[in-house]
Design a protein that fits this description.
There is one protein chain. This protein is α/β, with parallel strands linked by helices. It has nine helices and eleven strands. It has helices at about 5-20, 35-45, 80-85, 105-115, 145-150, 175-180, 195-205, 220-225, 235-250, and strands at about 25-30, 50-55, 75, 90-95, 100, 120, 125-130, 140-145, 160-165, 210, 215. The strands form two sheets. Strands 1, 2, 6, 7, 8, 9, 10 and 11 form an eight-stranded mixed β-sheet that branches. It has a three-stranded antiparallel β-sheet with strand order 3-5-4. The longest helix is centred in the first third of the chain and has 18 residues, at about 5-20. The mean pLDDT is about 100. The structure holds ligand 48F. This is Thiamine thiazole synthase. Pfam families: Thi4. Keywords: Iron, Metal-binding, NAD, Thiamine biosynthesis, Transferase. Its EC number is 2.4.2.59.
């Protein structure tokens, strides 16, 4: 076999071009590839929902890679241990109810689960705005290449339509803030101080449809609600991603 550089280029361009075209209309878009977004996308994919995960950075994983203060370990509490098992993430019991896992393995296994479930990934892609038309629902995303955003270039974006949008953008709750900024009836209170017990016990109540067509999960859910942060305990992120997937699937009638 003699390698042809142009064939390699054509393979990449044709495949990714087709993937983008195939996802210009989809059931669900998950914005943000941190733990909540990955869990949500993987479980939506498993339910047969046509779903893409859009991540502005080069790498998927959000704030999970770094564990706690760059010690690449995460803690998961008893309530979420079944999700470590479900995604095949190895862990050790530390004290009763506290389980420690490797953050790199957790990102890898969640990402692999989403891939296996048919989720399409669009990394290096920033959601810069949302579409809301006459029916008052969030009906799609306005996207651009992250390097365009970073360089401050004036390049018009493209759009992707989706029936349900999941804001999994973490502490900044970027998508919810876009709705608020543009005058939608949504108040983003902003996250509160660190209180792991409170933050983890309330996150499922905050994981919901906060505006027609827009669901929030992970730290974005707590940020919208003005709820506390929790630091490097990740059970709430996984449970919230799971809850968001259930709510979206229900909304889609799956
Ligand atoms: O921050 P992130 O990991 O969100 P999460 O799933 O998890 C929070 C934890 O990592 C941790 C914590 C819990 O223990 O407190 O911080 O709630 O991931 C959010 C992802 O969203 C991406 C961002 O790059 C990150 O990977 N993101 C943010 N804004 C945009 C975006 C945007 N406008 N378009 C695309 N991706």
């Amino acid at each position: 076999m003699t390698l042809n550089e142009v064939t390699i280029s054509r393979a990449i361009l044709e495949e990714q071009h087709q993937a983008l075209i195939d996802h210009l209309e989809m059931d669900a878009a998950v914005i943000g590839g941190g733990p909540s977004g990955l869990a949500c996308a993987a479980l939506l994919g498993e339910k047969g929902v046509k779903c893409a995960l859009i991540e502005k950075k080069l790498s998927i994983g959000g704030g999970m890679w770094g564990g706690g203060m760059m010690f690449p370990r995460i803690v998961v509490q008893e309530e979420a241990r079944r999700l470590l098992d479900r995604f095949g993430i190895a862990y050790k019991a530390f004290e009763e109810g506290y389980y420690v896992a490797k953050s790199v393995e957790a990102v890898a296994k969640l990402t692999a689960a989403a891939c296996d479930a048919g989720v399409e990934f669009f990394n290096l892609t920033t959601v810069e705005d949302i579409m809301i038309r006459g029916n008052g629902r969030v009906g799609g995303l306005v996207v651009n290449w992250t390097p365009v955003d970073m360089a401050g270039l004036h390049v018009d974006p493209l759009t992707m339509a989706c029936t349900c949008t999941v804001d999994a953008t973490g502490h900044d709750a970027m998508i919810a803030r876009m709705v608020e900024k543009k005058g939608g009836a949504l108040k983003v209170k902003g996250e509160s101080f660190m209180w792991a017990e409170r933050a983890e016990s309330q996150i499922l109540a905050h994981t919901k449809e906060v505006f027609p067509g827009l669901f929030v999960t992970g730290m974005a859910a707590n940020a919208v609600a003005g709820e506390c942060r929790m630091g490097p305990i990740f059970g709430g992120m996984l449970l919230s991603g799971e809850r968001a997937a259930e709510l979206v699937a229900e909304r889609l009638g799956r």
